[in-house]
Design goal:
This protein has about 375 residues and is of the alpha+beta class. Helix content is about 25%, strand content about 25%. The protein has four domains: about 40-100, Antifreeze-like/N-acetylneuraminic acid synthase C-terminal domain (Type Iii Antifreeze Protein Isoform Hplc 12); about 115-235, no CATH class; about 240-275; about 290-365, no CATH class.
């Protein structure tokens, strides 16, 4: 029994010895390898704020192993960047690269942060509009404006986001993110924003017509959403305005209904007029009146009276006899012919009556025959 219990123990010891041997061999091999290539790297001796000119006391050169993790544009000698301007903040102990340094000849100050196509614009702030004076250079903010505008012939107070993700270039005269004891408690009245060239007029107009408010956002928040807007009516409500708006809507609806009815009647009238024009015109039938013709049988004997026969036809164009009557010659007043002189009337009567003498008198009835006899 004892011999069987010792077998596993011996096996475990052998395995442990082998593992220790391999470990020691690996350590010795690592110690025996040649030293890795070392390179000189310039690092920040202390925090270097942005927009400042670099001096030799801000830098330190150290030897470090050359590894793939080391940036290709790492500064090797301090003389390469002395008197140059830091483009961004460089924390203590961080290797300095050329991408952290402004182009040669750049002057220190805010101009370092103003890139091509951008402008630096200052805006007034208060404790409430400046996030409690906790905004620092390099922060990112949204710009809002509160102003009164005219909408639908009435004044309305609105609050609208006019710019998004704007970088703060300076707070007062402070250009660096780091607050020193000297200026850390100083309250700034202005903030300088770095905005696009086309946004400069918008920012100036908002500042002159309304009140500017800044809203801080995270440095990693890159989203640009639809600009938000709200009105005083939406926030506080306005019962009178709502009732007025409802009344206006009702009036507009009633007016629209009335106009629709008028248009319908107009269209119907136009359709009726069109149908009337398209139908043939039926002339009314004129009932023909009977035509009576009087025939005078004049005798040569003056003692005898003239006999008259009156023949009535259906109309003036018909030969159908409707009635025949005998009687005295009708006596109707005759119309005087305009423009005819007495002599002309006498000559006309002489042509029709050969028995007419010069001494005979001409009566009106003699030379004006009746219309029926004609």
């Amino acid at each position: 029994m004892k011999s069987k219990a010792l077998v596993p123990l011996v096996v475990g010891l052998v395995v442990g010895v082998i593992a220790i041997k391999y470990t020691m061999d690996a350590v010795n091999a690592a110690k025996g390898e040649k030293d890795t290539d070392m390179v000189s790297v310039v690092m920040a001796r202390s925090d270097i704020p942005s927009t400042v000119q670099i001096t030799p006391d801000m830098l330190i050169a150290q030897e470090t192993p050359k590894t793939p993790l080391l940036a290709m544009d790492t500064v090797a000698k301090p003389d390469e960047i002395v008197n140059r301007v830091a483009l961004k903040s460089i924390p203590q102990g961080v290797p300095i690269t050329m991408s952290m340094i402004a182009p040669e000849g750049t002057l220190p100050g805010l101009i370092v942060r103003v890139k091509e196509g951008f402008r630096a614009v200052g805006v007034k702030i208060t404790e409430s509009s400046g996030v409690g004076y906790l905004i620092h250079p390099g922060d990112w903010v949204d710009v809002l404006v509160v102003m009164d505008v005219k909408r639908r012939s009435r004044s309305e107070t609105i609050s609208r986001v006019i710019l998004q993700r704007v970088q703060v270039g300076a707070v007062g005269q402070l250009l660096n993110e780091r607050h020193t004891e000297e200026n850390g408690n100083r309250v700034a009245q202005t903030v300088t924003l770095i905005v696009k060239e086309e946004d400069v007029p918008k920012l100036h107009l908002a500042q002159s017509r309304g009140r500017i408010t800044l809203a801080m956002r995270g440095a990693e928040d890159l989203a640009l959403n639809q600009p938000a807007e709200t009105t005083g009516t939406e926030v506080f409500g306005n019962k009178d305005e709502e009732e007025k708006e409802q009344q206006n809507q009702q009036d507009n609806s009633a007016l629209a209904d009335m106009m629709a009815k008028v248009n319908a009647l107009t269209n119907q009238a136009n359709q009726n007029a069109t149908q009337t024009k398209s139908q043939p015109v039926i002339e009314p039938v004129v009932q023909a009146e009977p035509k009576t013709v009087s025939v005078i049988n004049s005798s040569a004997d003056k003692d005898n009276e003239d006999a008259a026969v009156h023949i009535t036809f259906r109309d003036e164009n018909s030969m159908e006899v409707m009635e025949v009557n005998e009687g005295e010659r009708p006596r109707k007043p005759r119309r005087r012919r305009r423009g005819a002189s007495r002599r002309a009337r006498r000559a006309s009567y002489e042509e029709r009556s050969p028995d007419f003498g010069e001494d005979d008198e001409v009566s009106q009835d003699d030379y004006y025959p009746s219309e029926e006899s004609e």
